[in-house]
Amino acid sequence: MVLTNSSLRSIHIYLMGVFLLFEANHQQMDSTRSKFFWRGDIDKFKYHMVKWEKVCVAEDFGDLGIMNTRKLNEALLMKWILTLYRDREGDQVYELLKIKYSA
Fold first, then answer.
1. Average pLDDT value for residue range 90-99
2. Which end of the chain is less congested by CB atoms within 10 angstroms, N or C?
3. Given pLDDT bands bounded at 50, 70 and 90, which one contains residue 7?
4. What pLDDT was estimated at residue 24?
5. In whole angstroms, what is the distance from residue 101 CA to residue 1 CA?
6. Euclidean distance between CA atoms 28 and 8, whole angstroms
7. Which DSSP string corresponds to 9-44?
8. What residues does each domain of the chain span?
9. pLDDT band at 38 (very low <50, low <70, confident <90, very high)
10. Cα–Cα distance between 79 and 17 in angstroms, integer?
11. Which residues contact 8 (CB under 8 A, 6 or more apart)?
C-alpha cells in the first residue's frame, strides 16, 4: 500500500496541482500502479479480484485507500480556485492568478 501510494509523489503531484491532466494520463498512472499492486515485481499475470475503482476508495469507507488520481487532480486544482475567492489584494499568488485568468 505504501509503495503504491508513494509512486504518486514528487513531480506527479506538482503537475496535478498545476494542470488538469487528460484521461489518458490518469489511465497510464492507474495502469502502472495497478500492475505493481497486483503483481509486485514479478512479471507473471495475476487475476484481479476487485475493480481498480473499488481499490481506490478511501480507507474510511472500508477499502484499501489507494489514491484516486482523478479526484486528487481536481482537489489540488480547487486549492487555486479557493485562493482566487479569498481575494487577498497584494498577495503575489492572487495577483498572478488574477492576471492569468481574468478576462
1. 77
2. C
3. low
4. 93
5. 38
6. 12
7. -THHHHHHHHS---HHHHHHHHHHHHHHHHHTT--S
8. 2-75
9. confident
10. 8
11. 29, 33, 67, 69, 72
**Nearest-angstrom CA–CA distance, 68 and 57:** 7
In this predicted structure, what is the pLDDT of residue 59?
A: 63
Report the distance separating Cα 30 and Cα 36, nearest Å: 10
Phi, psi for 49 (deg, rounded to 5): -90, -15
Cell 478511501 belongs to which residue? 58
Under DSSP, the state recorded for 51 is: -
Residue 12 CA from chain centroid, whole number: 8
Q: How confident is the model at residue 83 (pLDDT cuts 50, 70, 90)?
A: confident
* Cβ neighbours, 10 Å, residue 100: 7
